């Protein structure tokens, strides 16, 4: 265990720290993790069937995402990446739209009013600044919403990581930086990404607290995020959290992890499965049965199937629509190009 | 022109508490060109923000501020220092409306002092408007006079979409002109004939307008009546204004100080041949900077188009 690592529940499912909430909430969040995993596996399956464009699985990172998202208020901002569908769905971003986006339809990037989450970032690191700006706007407007942004270990090498952390520190914006250190940026190992012992340690250079947490421990992730959220909301400024976790699957459906890591390493992390850990705890507390597991899997699968069906039933956009969202009003050039396209299709 | 821009910012901030300024040295010193002079005293440090030296940070944070309901006006210190922020502009600022199908928008203004003629150090004289004009989803405007600077900037701040606002460094203190005190806007997307003429259309923007105007005076002495068209808005371009002028005169010379290859003169000439080829009496000429790094002070005069060079190009198209 790394030095200073925050942990509440050991991989064996035994308590080693203080529980942030009771059994009912644990069951609710466990169920959210189960739903996330089902969604993730569905995403990979749909891609293999040619029904989705590339899909970026997050299996193994459910506790890092659900534990942190659960610490947010529903009106807080979430600025996440292409691998954060679990967190985004938990925060209210409709699964139908997440699927629609992965099908290659821009309307997937348009969540309903009231869902304060930007569409998933595809570029690496640049979005962290967007979270800083959103949090800053809330502060200037005298509101107490905060922003949480997710990024991976790879993003910490980008210049925008530095600029975002620096701006957040200087302007004390109410933002939480949550690094899902899943040990690989596509093929590059974490130890080739930075020579620093921990990513959390970088926070000191920006004048903010840095916290290292077992990212496969739902309780610990929730606790440290709740503390960071409270700090931000009460005017105490930003926090950076490094959640140590592991991407059990490939970078995307076009990636083959056997080219850069061993099966033994994957098996080792499979032992630290974030779902299994909570399941063991619940079972030990007589709050889990195989029957309940089957029931929630059936219900969540049905909900996911319904979301996929709904996404696939969305009629295609009209050809002219590709021009219609470039500006509030189309320029004469765009109108002319739109006419040309429509004539060529007639 | 610096004063006119200052007045526009002042009026915008007075009228709308969402308008804020971010940039390097914009607060206490009023910016390296003093364009934001006095505004921090008037509106405070929360609204006129001295930022760390980080251009991507400034534009990336301003993106978040804009999506979050503010109206940021950011200053890049010089065009040659704006490139670290280019990724934020081309990858996010210009795209969020489309990416979210109008759900999120980033109405921010990026002010960029640009162009040569002041004998500055490397990176301080660049004219890279084409790389901004090439980005789908941003507007690009260039005032050529103090009056337009004020009206176009107020229009840019009102605009629901991101606007790159290019300020010709050479004109900051070069032109004295009475600017109306009251708040007014100049529509984005409209060119302006600043000198009517019958024989040839000279097209320019920014500080090249001043060179072209001197050239037109020289030509007038020779009996050549040049029409001078100020493009003002590179995106969206007022194609009808350009075409109707060229149809009238039958000849055109495009002037820009940016490098020649893939410069906007090529775009304008393509439009002219698409829409007005049969009105042309002669091939269209272009007068541009060279495909070189902008030379330092001692060789600057070899690079920048000047009235004599423009007049010679007009002679060529008149002779054809």
Q: How does this structure look, described?
A:
The complex is a heterodimer of chains A (346) and B (320). Chain A is α/β, with parallel strands linked by helices and 346 residues long. In chain A, 43% of the residues lie in helices and 9% in strands. Chain A is built from 11 helices and 7 strands. In chain A, 49% of the residues are buried. The mean pLDDT of chain A is 96. By secondary structure, chain B is of the alpha/beta class. Chain B is built from 12 helices and 12 strands. In chain B, strand 1, helix 2 and strand 2 (48-50) form a beta-alpha-beta unit. In chain B, helix 1 (2-15) packs parallel to helix 7, helix 3 (55-67) runs parallel beside helix 4 (86-93) and helix 9 (239-249) packs across helix 10. The longest helix of chain B is centred in the N-terminal third of the chain and has 14 residues, at 2-15. Chain A binds chain B through residues 77, 79, 106-107, 109-111, 118-119, 123, 126-138, 140-141, 147, 159-160, 163-164, 166-167, 170-171, 325-328, 331-333, and chain B through 20, 46, 49, 51-52, 54, 56-57, 60-70, 84, 87-88, 91-92, 96-105, 136-137, 139, 160-161, 189, 235-237, 239-240.
Largest sheet strand order of chain A: 1-2-3-7-6
Largest interface: A-B, 41 and 45 residues
Shape of chain B: globular
Biggest sheet record of chain A? 5 strands, parallel
Would you tell me the structural class of the helices and strands of chain A?
alpha/beta
* Average pLDDT rating of chain B: 97
Category by helix and strand content of chain B: alpha/beta
Percent of sequence in beta strands of chain A: 5-15%
Measure the end-to-end span of chain A: 65 Å
**Which spans of chain A of ≥5 residues are poorly predicted at pLDDT below 50?**
none
Distance between the termini of chain B: 38 Å
Number of strands of chain B: 12
- What is the element string of chain B, with H for helices and E for strands? HEHEHEHHEHEHEEEHEEHEHEHH
Percent helix range of chain B = 25-40%
Per the principal axes of the C-alpha atoms, what is the gross shape of chain A? globular
In spatial order, strands of the major sheet of chain B run 2-1-3-4-6-5-10
Name the beta content range of chain B.
15-25%
Mean pLDDT figure of chain A: 96
